[in-house]
UniProtKB/TrEMBL annotation:
Keyword vocabulary terms for this entry: Signal
First and last residue of the signal peptide: 1-24
Protein name: PDZ domain-containing protein
Alphabetized InterPro entries for the sequence: Peptidase_aspartic_dom_sf
Gene3D superfamilies: Acid Proteases
Short name of any one Pfam family annotated for the protein: Asp_protease_2
Length: 409
């Protein structure tokens, strides 16, 4: 399974590997993992329309688990569903008959071990009984007081077809595939609940993971692909670039490209919207997040392996082209400088270092934000208003940043 969150992005997902191990590192029968991945019986008598919310560039849906209600991240990049440990403490889940440790890879490309228990999911009048959940620490991953209490993952998502209307912030659920005009993209779901789509880049074809738990604005690919971009101009970022189930990512250098040729779904299809490519050591596969698809109203027909994209009436929320060059995140209850991009602000504020602790942003301290995701949203709102960002370091020194485009060279 996999997952990641942007510190400008999150990646919550968990990718199940093809090899699974017990704690003693003895290979487990993968047929048992596949059996667990397919557990859950759906009751859906007729199409159901439900409200959704966009929170920190992730889709939230209200659901009940064993009768206890909360908001959940809709995440087809998470192989199972998941509950925050504090929410799970309120719910009595049922153990699997055979205890199985499951190894996976999170959004930082880190190996993690999980165990599953079973519960009932209700979304409106849609019910899934005997659905597998793993328990994760949302506080460690996202910070305190975050809105979602869990993840509706691929074990649930793949059994249903979903029609997202991002203009109205609704989703329609159906057991039958939806039909519509629009751009039609074939995709597949493998035995381990990973959604994949053909993606070509500068003449090279690969399978990309579709991961709605990744809220980055770029298509993320492994750094090994750097040679295929030749002499194309790039922007460089250095630091801890994402957060996932395993916590803050290791320090890394990423490269962002704007000039490239691509195709998706087949060797001919190119979409109308523009996007960037980010190369990172934290990626071992191509990753396409929910913002890529939220440029459109989006049908995901899991039972027939087809995505249909139609034109939105209202645009997706804007990620500003201008940046401050310094990205902030929350770790261990502190606001930290987690990464720098190649931006004119960085030379003007050369005394500010990676992982420096920040006391306040434009006078606002951590306690002034309801949850850590609002720090990301606040930085974006300042950029959209073309306002300065003033950082007060814990030693009292002030650093001033103005909105500037990142440097590509």
């Amino acid at each position: 399974m996999k997952k990641s969150i942007q510190v400008l992005f999150f990646s919550l997902g968990i990718l199940l590997a093809t090899n699974f191990y017990t704690n003693a590192q003895v290979p487990v029968d993968t047929s048992e993992i596949i059996r667990i991945s397919n557990m859950g019986d759906v009751t859906l008598l007729k199409q159901q329309i439900l409200p959704i919310q966009i929170w920190s560039d992730m889709i939230l849906i209200k659901a009940k688990v064993n009768g206890i209600e909360g908001y959940f991240v809709w995440d087809n990049g998470f192989a199972f569903s998941a509950l925050d440990k504090n929410f799970a403490a309120k719910i009595k889940l049922s153990p699997l008959q055979q205890k199985t440790d499951i190894a996976g890879t999170d959004g930082n490309n880190a190996q993690i071990s999980m165990q599953c228990e079973l519960g009932r999911v209700d979304m409106g009048q849609v019910s899934i009984s005997g659905s597998p959940f793993t328990i994760i620490d949302f506080e460690a991953m996202m910070g305190k007081h975050v809105k979602p209490v869990g993840i509706i993952g691929s074990t649930v998502i793949k059994k249903i077809n979903w029609k997202f209307d991002f203009d109205k912030n609704t989703v329609t659920l159906s057991l039958k595939p939806f039909e519509s005009n629009g751009i039609k993209l074939p995709f597949e779901i493998d035995a381990y609940n990973n959604s994949k789509i053909l993606f070509g880049l500068n003449g090279y074809l690969d399978k990309a993971a579709i991961d709605f738990g990744y809220n980055g604005n770029e298509v993320a690919i492994p750094k090994d692909a750097l040679p295929i971009f030749g002499a194309a101009k790039k922007s460089i970022s250095i630091g801890h670039l994402s957060s996932s189930v395993s916590g803050l990512s290791d320090r890394d250098t990423s490269y962002i490209f704007r000039d490239f040729k691509y195709c998706i779904g087949d060797t001919n299809t190119v979409l109308p919207h523009k996007f960037e490519i980010m190369l990172s050591s934290n990626r071992n596969h191509v990753l396409i997040g929910n913002r890529f698809f939220r440029n459109y109203n989006c049908i995901i027909n899991n039972t027939s392996g087809q995505i249909i994209l139609t034109t939105r009436k209202s645009p997706i929320n804007v990620i500003p082209e201008k940046k401050y060059g310094a990205i902030l995140s929350v770790n261990d209850g502190k606001i930290l400088v987690s990464s720098f991009s190649d931006n004119p602000n960085i030379n003007r504020n050369a005394d500010l270092k990676l992982m420096d602790e920040i006391e306040s942003i434009n006078g606002k301290s951590l306690k002034d934000f309801a949850d850590p995701s609002q720090i990301r949203d606040y930085q974006i709102s300042l950029l959209l208003k073309n306002m300065e960002m003033k950082l007060k370091r814990i030693d009292g020194k002030i650093f001033v940043f103005t909105p500037e485009p990142d440097i590509y060279k």
